[in-house]
Structures are given as structure tokens and as C-alpha cells.
Design a protein that fits this description.
The complex is a heterodimer of chains A (about 375) and B (about 325). Chain A has about 375 residues and is of the alpha/beta class. Chain A is about 35% helix and about 20% strand. Chain A has two domains: about 200 residues, P-loop containing nucleotide triphosphate hydrolases (Rossmann fold); about 70 residues. Chain A is globular. By secondary structure, chain B is α/β, with parallel strands linked by helices. Chain B is globular. Classes of the chains: A alpha/beta (about 375), B alpha/beta (about 325).
């Protein structure tokens, strides 16, 4: 069924270059008279590459723009600027048949399997529609039946007969998400965009779904974008991890490197904040407290320079004025951070932490 | 340690008669003064029902069908919360036990300033208090949870999610209750905010000396922030032990499965499996041990006999209890 399963692993499927999305804000009476146009800067200048047989994780807090990236890549939103390239060709679809052709190659899995399946239709209906729309249903009823069984078997809903005529409410959360994955596979895609695919599921079955996705990636040679707020699961599941903060990418590289030797101060904050059972009650490190106080900034008027500088304990005067560029860290090839701390000339000229809000800097130095 | 709240053989059903669903069954649990007791379990395990049952907040068709909840006030004799009259119950709630609910966004009234909502509590429980001292108390509470008192006149929509959750915690503590029940207090928040709020809560607990029942599905969070952990499955407590003991040496196969469902941030990357199958439906609970269809170690007595919660025969058995046929017990709890 998968005609491209033989394509070489590592082949670039989908690429985003300088991807930007601004949502216009409804203007009040006062702004109507002025020339000023306000917008939420949801995603700015995002670059990422999805390759066959690779999982890329996009990690960030809620509101960091990670879901917007997925929707842009799925062409559910038109982009403000930048480019999306499918196999090196720039694509822009608005709807109709070009959207269908795009969706046949890039499929999305949503967060909430309770909402993404229609409650009045059976599993058979959901999967048949996906197969028929994307022309994978074959010619005869037998072909269709076989394709349906095949799909359910792939997502480990076996025996398929038991699930085909069930309604969504008769299935558990994990089973529903498997049906949603099967539906995405019905299009026979090359890339899967998974937007928090396990965060609504019970803890004990999350790993089952992640392991299934990994297994599918290997068998069908899929390119997967895994969006999550849980950096530990990114380490578990993804080959490459990208960290987003306030609409911009701040760090990226091999998952193991990003989680074990984080370079950007925001990634460090994120990792220090993740629950860690080895840090038992009572053994709270006093240094940890009050670090990274504050909250993500408003994206209508994002902070100048580096968007993390108001919360950053290492902020320097340059961080307030200049937008940091991607700088190689130098420990592992491909590990980069958008942070002036890795620019030797800047660090030599300005003391790290010199522009941090007083309380935060004290903590770090002590 | 002195107990504050003792739950004895608590049973909670939804519905009546033959069609009743048993959401909480034979739960025995003791909360000690000044401790954080973690209650972990998946959705449908009965952890929230237990919390609502012991504060008598269950909405119909929820019914408490048996058991006792003994509360030990700081001064005076212990009494059974389930036997309180309506007036006594009204005085008991909030002043003795307070709850912080899951969605801070939905728990604050959007059309009232937070100052009004904070002083309302004081007005209801202490009508003689002067307006001025009520305001002062509300201001003090906000400062305690790390919100600048000049936000007193803000409406909930003017505050961020984290600040709203802090207001909720401040509101819960305003009458200085002995017991605070937190039902997934940080699930809707980001990890950075979650750590800040929980860290602050632990610090407040040390200062004010209340006890916390902390309900969540995130076991790794509980291991870090609580003193003891009780794990629920299918309406029963299957294991209870100090947090470090659960983490290092869990006895029940479900506890172990739950612990290995969280990928680690440090240490070797290894293949994890989670737990096969899905959580049971309360309406069709398996016979015997309700975990047996998913249990990798199920053997002959599991499908037919319900294991009782009791002290296991291990060297550290005195401080823990488990309900599993692999660790039969001579000393049942309760």
C-alpha cells in the first residue's frame, strides 16, 4: 500500500523556512482612527525539517506557538511569511483539490480523540472515508474490507472485526486515539503531524501509543513531528528536539544532547521544572526557588531583542536590544541555540547576568 | 504522628440499588498532621470521588453508602464528618477543610473582583468581622501566595492562569484550615508555573502547619512533593507507603507499571512499555483483583479473590501496606 516505503530514510519530506504567522487583533474604536495595526506574533521565523524515518519533537509551554506551527504545516492556516516546501517544492494551498493532494501526503493527529472522532459514526465510517477520499479504497468491496482490516491491524486494534462497527463512545481513550491514527494512515501519508497525541490519555496507556507511533515510523518510514509540553517524552520518543519560547525557536539538536546538556537558559529552566522523582520531598534545592519567575510575555508586543530576556538570569545588555541568531554550541554537531551567551565577542564585552532583573541574578551568582 | 483525618471503610456509590456503580470501595486512609499525602490514580480510579465523599460535596447520584470520616480538630474531641448536621457542616467546610479545584479558570466568578470573592468567605464564616479587617486579611493572603496586594481589585480575566490558581490557594487558606485537599491543582498549568506554585505551597505548609491531600495522575510529581503516597485502582487503594519507598521499591504490579510509564529525563534511555490494556470500566469491574486482566504477574487466586490491603511481610512492612496476592498479609489495615 505504501508506494514510497522504499524511499531512503533521511530523505527530506517537509521543510519550513522562516515560517511566520501573525494573527490580527480586532481593533477597538481608538485604534481604528490610528494607523497602528496590532497582531499576535504567534510564530516567528521558524525553521524545521522533517525527514523520513525521523521523529522531530517540538517542545514548549502552552502559548509558545507549537500548535500553530503544526497547523501551518498542515496548511490549515495560511502563513504570513516564509515558505513550506514539500520535497523541495514550495507549496501553498487554499482548499479544494490541491489541499486534498497535500493532505494525502501530510496528515495530522489531534490532541483530543474525544473530540476528533464524530460520535454519530462508527469506526468503519471514519476509516472508509479516509480511504475513499485519498483513493486507497481499491476497486471492490473486498479490497475496501481488506484495507480496513489492514489499517486496524497496523494500530494494534486486533481482531479488527471487534472494532470495525463500534461507535467512538464504546472505545477507551487509547483506542480512540488509535482509530485517529489509523484514519491518518488511511491517506497513506509521508509525514505525520502529531499535536500532543498522548496528553489527553491516561498515564498508563500513553507509552503504548507512543511506542505504536515509533513502530509505525520504522515500518512505514514516516516522518513525524511530535508536539509536546513534556520534554521527558521528547527525549524518549524523538530523534531531534526543538524548543520553542514565545513563538520563536530557541534551541535545537539531537534529543539526548538537548535534554542532557541544555544550552539555552530557557531550556534549562524547562528541564529543571520538570517533575523529577529523584529529587525527593524535603531535598528541595534552595537555588531552584524563584528562578525564572514570571511568565511568558504578551505576544502582541513581544519583548525587544531576545524574547526570554525579561526572565533570563543571564541576560546581558545586548539581549535587550538585538535578536539572537542561531549559534552553534560546538559540543555535538547540529546542536544550536539562539542565545548571545554562545557568542564569544558578546560574552567578553558584557558580563552575563548584568542586565538581568536584580533578584534573579543574585540567586544565580550566590 | 497525630492523625487529622481518618477515613474508615469508606464506600461511595453512584446511583442506588442494583444498578449502583461502586466508585470508592472500602477505603481506609489516615492523614497525619502537617503531612502531604499524595493520592495517585488514573481517571476513573475514584480519587476525586474519594475527595468529594470525605467533604460531603458529592452531587447526586453520588451516595456515601458506608464508612466513617473522623476529623480531629486542634482542640476538642474528634467527630465523624459524615454525621454532621447541615449547620455544623457549613461551619466545618472551609474553616476546617478546604478544597482547591482543578480548573482555577472556572472556580473564580468572572463578574466579581477577587477582593470581593476573598472577603465573601470571611463574611460568611465570621459575620462580626469588620469590613476593614476583612480587607486587610485578604490583602495579607494575596501577599502570602505571592501576588502583589494592589491586584486586589482585579477581575479574574485580568490575571494569568498561574495567578488565578494562586488566588484559589490563597482563598482556600484564608480561614486557616487544618486540611487542604488539592484536586489536580496544577494540571492546567505549565511545568515552570507548576513547580513555582507547588514549591510555594510546600513552604506555606511548613509555615502554617496544615496537612495536604494532593490528588493527581502524575506520579512523578507526587514522589517529589509528598511524604506518603496512596495509589488507587478501580476504586480501591492498592498500595500505600512513604514516597521514597514507592519510588524505589513499589510492591504492587500496578504501582510499578505506573512508575515505568513516565520516561525519565536523566539516566539511560530505555524501552518502556507502560501497562497493557486500558483502565477498567466502573460499571463492569473485573472479579477478584480488579487489576488482574492487565497484570503481568497474575496467578491463580487473582481472578477470584479480592486481596485485602495490609502490611506486607517485608522488613520495612510496618510503614506500608499493599493489596496484592503476591504479598499476602496477616495484618489487614482498618
Amino acid at each position: 500500500m505504501t508506494q514510497d516505503a522504499t524511499a531512503p530514510a533521511g530523505e527530506v519530506v517537509l521543510e519550513a523556512i522562516g515560517l511566520t504567522k501573525h494573527f490580527p487583533v480586532r481593533r477597538g474604536l481608538r485604534q481604528l482612527l490610528s494607523r497602528e495595526r496590532t497582531a499576535v506574533h504567534a510564530v516567528d521565523d521558524v525553521r524545521l525539517t522533517l525527514r523520513r524515518g525521523h521523529v522531530v519533537a517540538l517542545v514548549g509551554e502552552s502559548g509558545s506557538g507549537k500548535s500553530t506551527v503544526a497547523r501551518l504545516l498542515a496548511q490549515l492556516y495560511p502563513r504570513t511569511a516564509g515558505d513550506i516546501q514539500l520535497h523541495g517544492r514550495s507549496t501553498k494551498v487554499k482548499g479544494g483539490s490541491s489541499f486534498r493532494a497535500y493532505a494525502a501526503r501530510v496528515q495530522m493527529i489531534f490532541q483530543d480523540p474525544f473530540a476528533s472522532l464524530n460520535p454519530v459514526h462508527t469506526v468503519r465510517y471514519h476509516l472508509t472515508r479516509a480511504l475513499k477520499i485519498h483513493g486507497n479504497a481499491g476497486r471492490t468491496d473486498d479490497d475496501l474490507e481488506n484495507a480496513l482490516r489492514d489499517l486496524l491491524t497496523r494500530v494494534s486494534l486486533t481482531p479488527p472485526e471487534r472494532y470495525l462497527d463500534k461507535f467512538p463512545h464504546e472505545l477507551s481513550g487509547g483506542q480512540r486515539q488509535r482509530v485517529a491514527i489509523a484514519r491518518a494512515l488511511g491517506a497513506d501519508p509521508e509525514a505525520l503531524l502529531a499535536d500532543e497525541p498522548v496528553s489527553m490519555l491516561d498515564v498508563s496507556i500513553r507509552l503504548g501509543v507512543l511506542n505504536l507511533l515509533r513502530d509505525l515510523k520504522e515500518r512505514l518510514n514516516l516522518a513525524i513531528l511530535y508536539i509536546t509540553h513534556d520534554i521527558a517524552s521528547a527525549r524518549y520518543f524523538a530523534d531531534e528536539t526543538l524548543v520553542m519560547y514565545a513563538g520563536r525557536m530557541v534551541e535545537g539538536g539531537d534529543s539526548e544532547t538537548v535534554t542532557q546538556t541544555p544550552a539555552h537558559p530557557y531550556t534549562r529552566l524547562l528541564i529543571d521544572s520538570a517533575p523529577d522523582p529523584d529529587r525527593l520531598a524535603g531535598e528541595v534545592n534552595p537555588l531552584d526557588e524563584d528562578r525564572g519567575n514570571g511568565e511568558p510575555p504578551s505576544l502582541i508586543r513581544p519583548p525587544s531583542g531576545c524574547r526570554f530576556h525579561p526572565r533570563c538570569p543571564m541576560a546581558m545588555p545586548r539581549c535587550v536590544t538585538d535578536l539572537p541568531v542561531r549559534l552553534e554550541i560546538g559540543d555535538v554537531p547540529g546542536h544550536w541555540a539562539a542565545c548571545w551567551l554562545y557568542d564569544e565577542a558578546t560574552v567578553a564585552a558584557e558580563k552575563p547576568g548584568s542586565a538581568a532583573s536584580a533578584g534573579v541574578a543574585e540567586e544565580v551568582r550566590s | 504522628m497525630e492523625p487529622v483525618l481518618e477515613i474508615r471503610n469508606l464506600n461511595v456509590d453512584y446511583g442506588l440499588g442494583d444498578r449502583a456503580v461502586h466508585a470508592v470501595r472500602d477505603v481506609n486512609l489516615t492523614l497525619h498532621r502537617g503531612e502531604v499525602l499524595g493520592l495517585a490514580g488514573e481517571s476513573g480510579s475514584g480519587k476525586s470521588t474519594l475527595a468529594y465523599g470525605l467533604t460531603r460535596l458529592l452531587a447526586p447520584p453520588g451516595v456515601i453508602s458506608g464508612g466513617e470520616v473522623i476529623y480531629h480538630p486542634e482542640q476538642g474531641d474528634p467527630y465523624d464528618v459524615l454525621g454532621l448536621s447541615d449547620n455544623a457542616l457549613r461551619a466545618f467546610r472551609w474553616a476546617e477543610t478546604a478544597i482547591v479545584f482543578q480548573g482555577a479558570m472556572n472556580s473564580l466568578n468572572p463578574v466579581h473582583k477577587i477582593s470581593t470573592q476573598l472577603t465573601d468567605v470571611l463574611k460568611a464564616h465570621d459575620p462580626k468581622m469588620s469590613d476593614h479587617s476583612r480587607k486587610a486579611r485578604a490583602r495579607e493572603m494575596l501577599k502570602l501566595v505571592g501576588i502583589s496586594p494592589d491586584r486586589m481589585d482585579a477581575y479574574p480575566h485580568q490575571l494569568s492562569g498561574g495567578m488565578r490558581q494562586r488566588v484559589m490557594i490563597g482563598m482556600a487558606l484564608i480561614l486557616q484550615p487544618q486540611v487542604v485537599i488539592m484536586d489536580e491543582p496544577t494540571t492546567a498549568l505549565d511545568v515552570v508555573m507548576q513547580r513555582q506554585i507547588l514549591g510555594q505551597l510546600i513552604e506555606l505548609r511548613e509555615r502554617l502547619g496544615f496537612s495536604v491531600v494532593f490528588i493527581t495522575h502524575d506520579l512523578s510529581l507526587l514522589v517529589e512533593f509528598s511524604n506518603r503516597i496512596a495509589i488507587m485502582y478501580g476504586g480501591r487503594i492498592v498500595e500505600e507507603a512513604p514516597a521514597a519507598t514507592i519510588y524505589r521499591d513499589a510492591l504492587h504490579p500496578y504501582s510499578r507499571g505506573l512508575l515505568s510509564s513516565f520516561p525519565a529525563l536523566r539516566g539511560a534511555r530505555r524501552e518502556l512499555t507502560g501497562i497493557p490494556g486500558s483502565p477498567p470500566d466502573l460499571a463492569g469491574m473485573p472479579s477478584g483483583c480488579s487489576f488482574h486482566p492487565r497484570c503481568p504477574k497474575a496467578f491463580e487466586p487473582c481472578p477470584t479473590h479480592i486481596p485485602v490491603l495490609g502490611r506486607p511481610g517485608t522488613p520495612d512492612g510496618a510503614a506500608r501496606s499493599v493489596a496484592c496476592w503476591l504479598h499476602p498479609t496477616e495484618q489487614p489495615v482498618g
